[in-house]
Amino acid sequence: LRPSYFLLLALSLLAYAKANYCKKLLGELGDAESNFSYCVTMNSVPVAICVGCKEQYESVQQKFANIRNPNNNCSSMYFDNDRVNLVTATKDSLTNLWTKAYCDDCFKNNNIEEFTKMNAEFEGCVNQNPKFACEKCVNQYKALNNFYKQLDQHNNGNVCYDIQDSMNRTRNNWSKEHNCCRRESNMTLFTAALSIFSAILVLFYSGTYIVTRRREGNHGVLNDEEPLLSSSEATTSAAAMTSNSVRAPNETPTVLARCESPAATWRHEIPVSEIRNTNASVTS
């Protein structure tokens, strides 16, 4: 046999081994992705995908890194050979699921461990005091709630979804199942504002009543008094008397007398002779 034949056989065996090895790596990646998908589905309610599926997620990342390793010479077979790039797209979709749940936050500063510990203390208290949970377990609930608020503020709302779901369920049970959500409102400001508003109303209506009564009293006094002639009316009366003095001798002079009151206005001509007779009788 020629040496070239052996060389060709060796290359063929090498290519076959390479292809089988790459398929083996691809199969391992597929199994890891399948296990992670199954784990996420089984831990969706209540949500525990970050804690319950951490190993499966890390396995996906490791198997994908193996197949992308340049030393294995598998990249040319499975990557960038088509428009969809299915191997990468499948892995990215699973990674995106992990990222959207902010699962990495669970393992920063032992957040999930601290939260789980505090939550276990609270649930233990509730189980021991089912009828008096509101009074006996309020301190544990406040501590757990404050810890969650600190995480939420520190991470700008990007809290591990396992913790989010657990806290939401705890709050819901605390308020609805145990009926312990008693909002403490500060009534001081409301009471002060209500008192001031009531005082203003009382002063306003009292002042209005007093002013109205005074006006009615003044109106009654004016009705009881004798009507007085104003300066303009006095001038009118004087002019009338002057006109009477220049009348013909056979005419009886008259004086215009006028009385105005809020109720009515009347006008009557009084002969001057009657006025003189009246004055004479008074004088006598």
Automatic annotation (TrEMBL):
Chain segments annotated as transmembrane: 187-205
InterPro entries, per the entry: Osteopetrosis-assoc_TM_1
UniProt-annotated stretches for the region Disordered: 221-252
Composition skew (Low complexity), residue ranges: 230-245
Assigned keywords, A-Z: Membrane, Signal, Transmembrane, Transmembrane helix
Keyword check for Membrane: yes
Keyword Signal recorded: yes
Organism domain of life: Eukaryota
Position of the signal peptide: 1-19
Official protein name in the record: Putative osteopetrosis-associated transmembrane protein 1
